[in-house]
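Sequence only, no structure available. Ideas?
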Amino acid sequence: MLYSSFRFNNGFSLNQYKTIFLSDYILQSFANSIWLSLVSACLALIIAIFASYAIYTYSEKVRERILIIINLTSNFSGVPLAFAFIIILGNSGLITLFVQFMGWDWNFNLYSWSGLLLIYIYFQLPLAIMLIYPVFYGIQKEMKDAAMMLGASNAYFWRKIGVPIIWPALAGTLTILFANAMGAYASAYALTGSGYNLTAIRIGALLSGDIFAQPELASAIAVLLGAVMIVGMLISEWMTKKMRKDANL
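Reply:
I predicted one. Tokens follow.
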């Protein structure tokens, strides 16, 4: 892929990267993908934190059953997921028709940025819970009891002890969710086709060749997509080290 990205007319060239940085349309696809991935990853992470902690407080028997369901739903993605959302929330979807029948105001458009965000959060949430849930076992009850005996409030305990302990896992999970969203293709394409400009859809269009295939340009976009993910990982690692240093862990 890296080799192909530097090929042009059977020779070495930076022409593909020049094309990318001079194309507002391709740059817009990067901006859309980064923004959609970042927002969906942050929202999924926040929901997953509370959901994981709630699961952690249940009995072992209930926890096992919930985790089995979450594990099953984590495999429901791609075209089947988009089709399921279309049946429920599409223009002729079950909920859409019900709301229209009731005469309620309904402005939600599944085939827009909001619809994509909803689907992205849905397929990211089970993964986030599976990654965050074990982290809460690292916070032992004795630690919290000792802090309370020394006069710490619940908020102070989580700010000074709890969050610094689980932060590396949260930062790592956020990075994984971001990368997962950046590389998502099937769900977005099945829902919007080429109607919404995303990087993964641009790569697919250039490889399949709606007019003519441009695999070299697709390779260059894929290389830059990988670079964006690597930058995200480096930022996550830097934030983790800084927080550990500030907390003296």
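Residues 24-57 form the longest helix (34 residues).
Hope that gets you unstuck.
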